[in-house]
Amino acid sequence: MTAWHALVNVARMRKGESILVHAGAGGVGMAAIQIAHHLGAEVIASAGSHTKRALLETLGVKHVIDSRRGDFAEAVMELTNRRGVDVVLNALAAEAIPMGLSCLSEFGRFIEIGKRDIYQNSRIPLWNLRRNASFHVVAMDAVFSGDESLTRDMLGEIAELVEKRALTPLPFRSFAACRVDAAFRLMASGKHIGKVVVSFPEAFVPRQGEPLPPAFAIQPDGCYLITGAFGGFGKVLAQWLVKSGAKHLVLSSRSGASTPEAQAFVKSLENAGTEVRVVRADAGSEKDINALLAEVSAGKQPLRGVFHLAMVIDDAPLAALNRDRLRSVITPKAYGAWLLHKGTAHLKLDCFVMFSSVSSIFGNPAQGNYGAANSFLDSLAHHRHALGLPALTMNWGVLGGAGYVARNERVAEFLAKQGTYELSPGEVVSLLESSLAAGNTQVVAIRVDWAKWEAILPQRAGQSVARAHPLFSRRTGGWGPDQRLAP
Ligand SMILES: NC(=O)c1ccc[n+]([C@@H]2O[C@H](COP(=O)([O-])OP(=O)(O)OC[C@H]3O[C@@H](n4cnc5c(N)ncnc54)[C@H](OP(=O)(O)O)[C@@H]3O)[C@@H](O)[C@H]2O)c1
After folding, report:
1. Can you tell me the distance from the alpha carbon of 147 to that of 138, in angstroms, rounded to the nearest whole number?
2. Is the distance from the beta carbon of residue 355 to the nearest atom of ligand 1 less than 6 Å?
3. How far, CA to CA in Å, does 225 sit from each of 165, 299, 325, 342?
4. Does 233 contact ligand 1 (Cβ within 6 A)?
5. Which of 164, 314, 349, 424 is at a distance of 20 to 30 A from 6, taking alpha carbons?
6. Measured from the CA of 309, which atom of ligand 1 is nearest?
């Protein structure tokens, strides 16, 4: 509403006009850019980091300038053939105000949305306003507490445009209310993009209207399918499902419950009151997956959730990755996920979870095949999301306690040397649970010593790739060895 009121009601921007938006990657900035584009205006936006400037370019901003450059006015005059801009949307303080005024064109409007200089009663040099220019103040607190029809009209206009998708919601980073300190630190560091949101655990229920649907919950009268169920994480997952109230499980892998240990595991789940069906199936075989899904649908309970964990690892340097080694790793994971997707697309599932790995985000030495397979899972999750189907891909780092890495001490040592440490089974299930409840499509979960981790990644132009990576631009905290973070 700040951006709308400033551009539409106050500046009365028209098609073909130009605007300078400071802090274009911030919440108000991004909203102003969208609104300006919607009105047919040309935007010059400033941002303080390379990542933010790159983002603004992707938003179609015609000219992006560096806000850390002291002489932004000169840059604006150059870009406009010394004409200046029709509107300046300003939240910068002190000398930035006269500088902004100096880049106004004739009939230009300077819209002040910052508070500091107003409350400090600062002076405005009037010379810059001599050619029919004007200075306006936007104070939304006063708008909201004043005549309510203005607020109501604006909300109506904006809601209509959002509904028509002429305006899209802003990106945001959400912090639990108990971490409000971290939210403020992020804002103070100026590293945020879009909005910073503080959220409360209780779902917001509008006073008039329907309550929100409940967060994800396991249904006792539904059936849950796990592939790769007898591996380390399959078992952790099955135990979590049972603990969360699942009464019907189908556990699948190629060899099924073939060992005494696996049989004892099945028994322990049954003893907890859950019906367990074990189905042998190769996740990479269409025939087997069809038979598996037929077996599932032969049960009385409808399938409510799919957890795809089946995997084979066969690490090799790129030059040694032949067709067979690619196929053996990609088939059960990627093709298996595709078969499960196709075979269940018509069902009303609550969740479709794929265990992926950080190998598809950052790459891992000798895991070209595994990285590609996981990358497919990530894309499939977004594809399903676009189709309106439930989907979650979890890009796990190292899982501790059970599973492939726990069985392979040398792999664990190698990963620790890289700075990647284990997540405990308890952390894994709580992260999974919260990601399902939040309705996320993709979640990366790693515990990492950033200093070590950064050192193993390549350097470019004297800077580590990790630091320049846009994924980390919104990470809070430093790069020191004490910055081991949960995800
Ligand atoms: N462990 C980690 O640190 C880690 C890290 C990141 C991501 N992940 C992901 O988490 C998942 C589980 O990992 P994990 O450590 O629990 O693995 P795991 O202990 O090695 O278990 C793998 C399971 O997959 C089954 N499997 C292998 N090929 C199959 C096929 N063609 N069809 C059906 N099932 C097949 C295996 O049983 P059969 O041999 O009997 O078929 C086994 O039950 C994997 O998707 C993995 O990519 C693990």
Report:
1. 15
2. yes
3. 37, 12, 27, 15
4. yes
5. 164
6. 45
Tokens 């269409």 correspond to 286
Give the span between the Cα atoms of 219 and 235, in whole angstroms.
19
- The full length of the chain comes to 487
Domains annotated on the chain, with CATH: 2-164 (3.40.50.720), 223-448 (3.40.50.720)
- Please check the confidence at residue 458 and state whether its pLDDT lies above 80: no
Percent of the chain with pLDDT over 70: 92
Residue 323 pLDDT level (bands cut at 50, 70, 90): very high
The token pair at 228 is 């790769």
Q: What is the pLDDT averaged over residues 414-429?
A: 88
Helices 368-386 and 336-344: angle between axes, nearest 10 degrees: 20
230 lines ligand 1 (CB under 6 A): yes
Output the CA torsion 434→442→274→311 (10° steps).
-140
Average pLDDT value for the chain: 90
Cβ atoms 267, 291 nearer than 8 A:
no
